[in-house]
């Protein structure tokens, strides 16, 4: 069951409708071409040799026997890539250092995690490539390793990087540490606030690294030509970013690289990073042949970026009436082998749902011998929300308050200033809480044996650089060209906005995703930016085209262009005083384009600001088998302020998908390392993701509070849905069992152990 609460009833013809998706037929018939589906004549197969050690000095690499093997055409190591400067660059919602990227794609001085690439080969067959890997001899000096974030922070922990001094340390750092960075945010006086509080709740929480769970492994095909030009096909969330990173890593100009994005079988932030692309490009350059590379599922787990785990300490002080007067959050977050965890967003999002006068937030970015983390839907925010929203539930129980009422009493609204400095404009936190409170789900009684949990979540949403073009075809159709891979329905949303703006039938609009040589720069598909930011570029390109259409109509009618209006998909005279002319449709104007000035196009390029932040509230009913610790999720409802639901079915899918991923994160998913620093569950058999039979139908409530900074009120919707579920599930488990879990995942063994430990105390209390 889904409910759509539009603020725009009857306002639009196409926006808010549910037409067929433009890529739907290709997807369901198998015609869509994903990364591994691309091949070229004469291509070679590339394979990567990966470190078996979690931490080891690379003393030497001997590739001579591999190069001598018949059928091997190229071998590369770190020596084939120029070293990079200490330069921070953005990647999706996170930031990375170019010095670190070149060491992540190919280990240089040390291997820093199991699975770290140390060499790669290109051969005429997969079998020969694998044989070649076995002939490469690497002399390692194995070092002590550290996996856990708390252990990595200790003064006597094995140091990953001898040059790494803690940025932001107070007092300034004087010796190397695994703590790459310390950050803090302050609002008011937290110490004074806690002194004023009548109730103070303090709790420590832990989370584990989890995988984004995309079904399609990483894949790329690179073809280097004799003139220095390189074509690349890649499964990626940002082909302009692939071009930019690879140009730096290979010492090329961006103009030498043309990247075409393939269809993408899931990404969720995990495909905003380059792994295989620079390797395939260098192998192609050295061999003179196209090189295709794909990751096995084990490689994906061992060597691509998961979402981080970490430790979070939360302290909340309130008055007896429920008003929160002070809040504190300390986040220690795994970055993996190189600095750059999403600790910043985790800190900034922690209390952003609430209007609190006194706040102190501190975060630590910590390296350890794991793969460098990558983004995963609202990176960092689910981790801090797990801790904050769980603590709020404890507070609600302590005050004997309804958990929705507690949140409503403290909810952020227009004019609320956040701890990270931003003052909110029009937002929908209150409306979203009210939507859950008034839902049939929340009003229904909790079934015997079940517990009900609620939690809220916030994400900024982003804008950034976007380009788009619109073209009128000879038959009066419209092609809309953008530069963002479609991972969340952006083809449909862009086409709907173009149809609405033009006043033409949606089926007359064809959305195209162009390669890096065919459209201006676009930032990555991530941060819930595409429908908002690239959508604004599309709207502006259509408006540019409409200006030209009015000029063409004016030429035909021999009147001033300002005397022409565009209405209902047609050029019309602005009034009777202008003259009596029959309206001209797109097809009419296209038919006469040759004699009025040539092809009719529109373009737009802008650095988009004004992204409206998103808020969501989730409610879950579940029961726990007290013997096994297994959790059965019986009912789930996700409500979110979606701005304007351009294509409601896609928006509902975003909410449902985020809820499912959050449920998995809460109950089962985790990276499990053994004593040697090796990952014990690098595959979907042992890494337990939820499947359909584990879940109820996810109900959704789409609350529309339009973003005033967008002509159609768009807010990004893809990040927020993964933030509340973990805490909502944890709160429901606590209310169902009386046992408060603070460590993720709440898997059957962990939950069963906690229930067993609590049983004697329960019996004594009875």
From TrEMBL:
Extract the ranges annotated as region (Disordered).
Answer: 1-26
Instruction: Give the domain of life.
Output: Bacteria
Residue intervals of the Aldehyde oxidase/xanthine dehydrogenase a/b hammerhead domain: 29-144
Provide the GO MF annotations for this entry.
iron ion binding; oxidoreductase activity
Q: Which Pfam families match?
A: Ald_Xan_dh_C, MoCoBD_1, MoCoBD_2
Q: Which InterPro entries match?
A: Ald_Oxase/Xan_DH_a/b, Ald_Oxase/Xan_DH_a/b_sf, Ald_Oxase/xanthine_DH-like, AldOxase/xan_DH_MoCoBD1, AldOxase/xan_DH_MoCoBD2, AldOxase/xan_DH_Mopterin-bd_sf
User: Per its record, how is this protein called by name?
Assistant: Oxidoreductase
Please tell me the species this chain comes from: Reyranella soli
Its organism's taxonomic lineage begins at: Bacteria, Pseudomonadati, Pseudomonadota, Alphaproteobacteria, Hyphomicrobiales
